From TrEMBL, chain A:
One Gene Ontology term, aspect cellular component: membrane
Superkingdom: Bacteria
Keyword match Metal-binding: yes
GO biological process terms on file: formate metabolic process; respiratory electron transport chain
The protein's name: Assimilatory nitrate reductase catalytic subunit
Cofactor(s) required, per the database record: [4Fe-4S] cluster; [2Fe-2S] cluster; Mo-bis(molybdopterin guanine dinucleotide)
GO terms assigned for molecular function: 4 iron, 4 sulfur cluster binding; formate dehydrogenase (NAD+) activity; metal ion binding; molybdopterin cofactor binding; NADH dehydrogenase activity
SMART domains in the record: Molybdop_Fe4S4 (SM00926)
Keywords, alphabetical: 4Fe-4S, Iron, Iron-sulfur, Metal-binding
Parts of the chain that traverse the membrane: none
Record domain 4Fe-4S Mo/W bis-MGD-type: where: 18-76
Cited NCBIfam families: Fdh-alpha
Automatic annotation (TrEMBL), chain B:
Keywords for the protein's UniProt record, in alphabetical order: 4Fe-4S, Iron, Iron-sulfur, Metal-binding
Keyword Iron-sulfur part of the UniProt annotation: yes
Protein name: Fe-S-cluster-containing dehydrogenase component
InterPro entries: 4Fe4S_Fe-S-bd, 4Fe4S_Fe_S_CS, ET_IronSulfur_Cluster-Binding
Stretches assigned to the 4Fe-4S ferredoxin-type domain: 3-33, 43-74, 76-105
PROSITE patterns per UniProt: 4FE4S_FER_1, 4FE4S_FER_2
GO molecular function, one term: 4 iron, 4 sulfur cluster binding
Keyword Iron: yes
Source organism per UniProt: Alkalicoccus daliensis
Length: 707, 180
């Protein structure tokens, strides 16, 4: 098998005594192409070499990507299984750790029933592993309580797409087309910091005259280059989207033929946006009416436009509404299913797309099948070799699993590839939950804040010590290659899950010798589902620079552009929403008069468990801070660099102030990548979206005090 | 070397990938030799990258009493040779752009060498390879000329007059800089 892929004529620096292993970055959904440099003699990781010929990212990397390889042979790696004895972690053998897990799991399920165990998954791992986590929970443990960290990331986008298009693929178009678009409308995305390598596509389009409309409370590096920056109050996206829809309809920018032919519910939408005049919208959102009008005209006049959104719009208690409303801007303009136009969400996690399709969600089975659909249960049960009656029923969402812990329903948890002790809202509640558990197992390669609560920590491999596939934010299925053998005593997640399954007497359902065998089973499991991967093979991925799902057979070319003829709904038509605006879960009060919003910085990834350990990244941004406008600061007699206390109805924390005029005057922004006392998620509001169960990370009410 | 280093400051998104990548270059001893600065964070999030522009008659080399800074046949101004550098820091004071850095532990200067092991083979230096926003590029002369012409066109449309500033006469042919 070729490990190094390069197209003819592409020059890479190939040092003597080193080989290059072609793969992708471990971090966000861009999944930037890279080669990892490995010493031929010792097998050690030497560094990174740009992959100039990967068509999506062209060799570009952000600082996280450049330093990603430094995770692999990092001194903080967990080398052997850890068992907590008298409150302290003691290194142990795999035999001892797995025996303990076997004994505890059996004991707890014997005493409290199958559903006393739970699984908390993650999507920063390959499709093979994500698929197996779902199977592990349902077949090996037999519990209905499984959910994953995508609930804190992509679930509103998924919910919105399902509602509107009947199918959830994060991007309706391949991103190599973006440079040909005429207009980007981006809501709640600081893509320059959160998906930095995407910015080249926007610059290329802008060099040809494309316009950018950015919707964000802060003048981020993305908003800075926008033609119109709609600086809305956090939590008012649905009002702004309704306001833009109002103008698109009023000014005659609707592609009526497209709407009549391909969309339901236009009259209802028209009626519901009626009240959102620019003045009314401005009064809710705090954006000047002229800017809303200007944005609507730019967007309405652009022949090819792409509507994009990210966590800013999605991580709200109205996240699904926001997604459906922004998506319908593209529908009204007749943009979906055409060249260089459409709708896309910026997938946060490396495999946020693939990982959510294949059964880690409490109500989904592989191939985006519904657990509530008896046919789906029948099919997957057959693939797995179990009786349909054995299939557990749907469970609850990620945050709600902690309610079940507090209720005493869930007694033990297995956390795989996730760090909810940092990434959940209202984390003190989560910490209490972990303490209440009888038994907690965590798979990780660094001792995360979650792992610190564990009874057993199992050392897993990093992404470069295993092979498999991921699905990037376009929906393109790509290959991750193994650069080195697992270090220390670490094992891959799929090996660990298979071994636990074997100890619980379910080994015959997990007979895998390598990831490719899992992939082959997984292909069959997805066959006929909405997210159909059955025509994709490792060889095709190499040959074709990745394959876009759905791909129902090996002679099917894959589907770079979605919804060319019809949508994924039963009647093939897109459903336009008709939803008004509602206040976020928490509004400013006399006691908590300001709005707090949270987000990312370019130097860190998610809960920071990986990036906070990389010297370069840590040096650039060692601690969180409270960013605000100097006018707000002066009302509290505060200056740059001073310490303040932030309080919300849930908790308080102390932070340094960082002042900039490039933000709204009535908000405080804090990045969320840190744990314990530095975790802004102590403050955030667990108000959940009714459909996606996404917590409202992006808005809550806050009080500032100078220290 | 048939390529040109080309900077477009306003494209910079401040991600510092160029600095992380600079540390990755084989000869760079895991120390970055380039800079990314905020213009004024209080006013705006605009940042800009800066690196050695490989002067034609480089002040750093001229003021080096030990002749430690060598210039390649292509005109790349190399980092001081380890054996020769006496740690006097003349170069760090002499450079009009403040580019050379100083390692106080090793008592040696170090500076950008345009990743000479890459650029001599026309492979882009690490900073230009990874820069996500194309603020730093390693491109053909013709491509640079067309980019500059395009800029001039846009400036004319927007009513700005293109200006020639004297400081760029120090910059050699294989290093292009565009600035308003």
């Amino acid at each position: 098998m070729t490990e190094f892929l390069a197209k003819p004529g592409v020059k890479n620096l190939h040092n003597k005594g080193e080989k290059l292993i072609t793969t992708h970055c471990s971090y966000c959904g861009m999944q930037c192409g890279m080669h990892i440099r490995v010493s031929e003699r010792t097998g050690e990781i030497k560094g990174v070499e740009p992959r100039y010929d990967w068509p999506v990212t062209l060799g570009k990397l952000c600082p996280k990507g450049v330093t990603a390889y430094q995770q692999i042979d990092h001194p903080d790696r967990i080398k052997r299984p850890l068992i907590k004895k008298k409150g302290k972690f003691v290194e142990s053998s795999w035999e001892e750790a797995l025996s303990l897990i076997e004994r505890k799991f059996t004991e707890i399920q014997g005493k409290h029933g199958k559903d006393a165990l739970s699984v908390f998954g993650g999507v920063s791992m390959t499709n093979e592993k994500c698929y197996l986590v779902g199977k592990y929970a349902r077949v090996a443990l037999g519990t209905r309580f499984i959910d994953y960290n995508g609930r804190f990331c992509m679930s509103s986008a998924a919910g919105g797409f399902m509602k509107t298009f009947g199918l959830d693929r994060g991007s309706t178009l391949p991103w190599t087309e973006l440079e040909h678009s005429d207009c980007f409308l981006m809501a709640g995305s600081n893509t320059a910091e959160c998906h930095p390598t995407s910015i080249q596509m926007f610059w290329k389009a802008r060099d040809k005259g494309a316009k950018m409309i950015v919707i964000d409370p802060r003048e981020t590096p993305t908003a800075r280059i926008a033609d119109v920056h709609l600086d809305l109050k956090p939590g008012t996206d649905s009002a702004l989207a309704n306001g833009l829809l109002h103008l698109i309809i009023k000014e005659g920018y609707v592609d009526q033929e497209y709407v009549d032919e391909r969309c339901n519910n236009f009259e209802e939408l028209k009626a519901s946006v009626e009240e959102f005049t620019p003045e009314h919208t401005a009064s809710i959102t705090g954006v000047a009416p002229e800017k809303i009008i200007k944005a609507a005209h730019i967007y309405g006049r652009s022949p090819r436009s792409v509507v994009m959104f990210a966590r800013g719009a999605e991580q709200q208690s109205k996240g699904v509404d926001n997604v459906t409303l922004y998506s319908s801007l593209a529908l009204l303009r007749g943009q979906i299913g055409k060249f260089a136009s459409g709708v896309a969400t910026f997938t946060g996690q490396g495999n946020g797309q693939g990982g959510r399709e294949h059964g880690q969600k409490s109500d989904l089975l592989p191939g985006y099948r519904k657990l509530t659909d008896p046919e789906a249960v029948k099919y997957i049960s057959k693939v797995w070799g179990i009786a349909p009656e054995e299939m557990p029923k749907p469970g609850v969402s990620a945050y709600e699993m902690f309610d079940e812990i507090h209720n005493g329903t869930i007694k033990a948890m297995h956390v795989i590839c996730s760090n909810p002790a940092v990434s959940s809202p209202n984390v003190e509640y989560i910490w209490e939950g972990f303490k209440k558990l009888d038994f907690l197992v965590v798979n990780d390669f660094f001792l995360s804040e979650t792992a610190e609560f564990a009874d057993v920590v199992l050392p897993t491999t990093t992404w470069a010590e295993d092979e498999g596939t991921t699905t990037n934010l376009e929906g393109r299925v790509i290959r991750i290659r193994k650069a080195i053998e697992p270090l220390h005593e670490s094992k891959t997640d799929w090996q660990i899950l298979s071994e636990i399954a074997a100890r619980l007497g379910r080994g015959k359902y997990f007979p895998y010798k390598n990831p490719r065998e899992i992939f082959e089973e997984f292909r069959i499991a997805t066959k006929g589902g909405k997210a159909d991967y059955s025509g994709i093979t490792y060889e095709r991925i190499d040959k074709e620079d990745g394959v876009f799902w759905p791909c129902p057979s090996e002679d099917h070319p894959g589907t770079p552009t979605m919804f060319k003829e019809s949508f994924g709904t039963p009647d093939g038509k897109a459903n336009l929403p008709a939803v008004g605006w509602e206040e976020p879960g928490e509004v400013p009060t006399k006691e908590f008069p300001l709005r707090l919003t949270t987000g990312r910085v370019v130097f860190h990834y998610l809960s920071g468990n990986q990036t906070r350990r990389i010297d370069f990244l840590k040096d650039q941004c060692p601690e969180p801070y409270a960013e605000m406008h100097p006018e707000l600061a002066s009302q509290y007699n505060m200056s740059d660099g001073e310490m303040i206390r932030l309080s919300t109805p849930r908790s308080t924390m102390e932070l340094e102030v960082k002042l900039t005029k490039a933000t709204r005057k009535d908000i405080v922004f804090v990045p969320y990548h840190w744990g314990k006392e530095l975790s802004v998620n102590k403050l955030t509001n667990p108000s959940l979206d009714p459909v996606s169960r996404m917590p409202e990370f992006k808005v809550c009410s806050v009080k500032i005090e100078k220290l | 070397m048939n390529k040109i280093m080309y900077l477009e400051f306003e494209r910079c998104i401040g991600c510092r990938a160029c600095q992380a990548a600079c540390r990755e270059c084989g000869d760079h001893d895991a120390k970055e030799r380039n800079y990314v600065e905020h213009v004024d964070f209080m006013e705006s999030r605009q940042t800009f990258p800066m690196m050695c522009m490989q002067c034609k008659d480089p002040a750093c080399a001229r003021v080096c009493p030990a002749n430690a800074i060598q210039i390649t046949e292509e005109g790349v101004v190399l980092s001081a040779s380890e054996e020769k550098c006496i740690g006097c820091r003349n170069c760090t004071f002499g450079c009009p752009f403040g580019i050379p850095k100083f390692d106080f532990e090793a008592n040696k200067m170090y500076k950008c060498d345009m990743c000479y092991d890459r650029s001599k083979h026309d492979i882009a230096p690490m900073c230009a390879s990874v820069c996500p926003s194309d603020a730093i590029r390693f491109i053909d002369f013709d491509e640079m000329q067309s980019l500059r012409r395009r800029r001039t066109q846009l400036n004319l449309v927007e009513g700005k007059k293109p200006t020639e500033q004297d400081k760029w006469k120090y910059v050699p042919e294989f290093f292009g800089v565009y600035s308003d």
